[in-house]
Amino acid sequence: MNRLTGKVAVVTGAGRGIGAAIARAFAAEGAAVVLAELDIETAQASAREIAGQTGAKTLAVRTDVTQSASVQAAVSEAQQAFGPVDVLVNNAGINVFADPLTMTDDDWRRCFAVDLDGVWNGCRAVLPGMVERRAGSIINIASTHAFQIIPGCFPYPVAKHGVIGLTRALGIEYAPKNVRVNAIAPGYIETQLTHDWWNAQPDPQAARRATLELPPMKRIGKPEEVAMTAVFLASDEAPFINASCITIDGGRTALHHE
Asked: What is the pLDDT of residues 242-256, one digit of tens each?
């Protein structure tokens, strides 16, 4: 339970779902955790809960990942509170699903501003310090949409393909400086967004059953299962894993479809 003792971690979009699970897991492993979140009240509530459960140092910072200055300010607050940032998890993201020919320019820009620019803004904010110290781990939350296309989900997979490209390019660029950049690609994970999607369907229970039938394991993932992998990549147990992507989908993307 001490794999991240002494480390300072920043997690974007950490107010709920996968981000909150990662922040909680990091704190349980001894890290000081900064929850960088647009919804500051949600982040503050999660930070208090995590501190109460783990005794870890936590800090909630209002952060708009689409704005480079906002992300840089969050990293500066993290450094002032706890010291140099050792780990960054770029988790903040949104679903934008539209028809390519009727999608608005605003939807296109909104998707890329959060899902790709937001990741780059985070990387750019922490890289100078990591390069200077010749140590650091950046973890980008991608998606199985990054390598499999599902009709009706445009332009989300385009942005997530970009996240994988960014991960690999930065991982190679800064490998000589001992800064590792990796990605995690979750499949279906049971978050509030998943429940919201089920509930928006004509038959929510049927939609839920259909989703659970998709993975070979006949269930979907839990946020905590993504968090376990993030802990591993953030720790000193993964020193030679770089420019890689770990898929967490119960085998769904490996399954051949007739």
From this structure: 999 999 999 999 997
CB 88 within 8 A of CB 139: yes
Please give the C-alpha separations between residue 90 and each of 1, 50, 198, in angstroms, as whole numbers.
23, 19, 26
174 catalytic? Reply is no
Q: pTM score, two decimals?
A: 0.96
3-state secondary structure 58-94: EEEEECCCCCHHHHHHHHHHHHHHHCCCCEEEECCCC
82: domain CATH number? 3.40.50.720
CA distance 21 to 235: 16
Domain count, the chain: 1
Which of 82, 112, 154, 156 does the annotation list as catalytic? 156
* Nearest Cα to Cα of residue 21 among 159, 161, 217, 222: 222
Answer whether residue 133 is part of any domain. yes
Range of the domain at 177: 8-190+222-251
The pLDDT tens digits for 217-226 are 999 999 999 9
Report yes or no on 206 lying in a domain: no
What's the first-to-final CA gap in the chain, in angstroms? 44
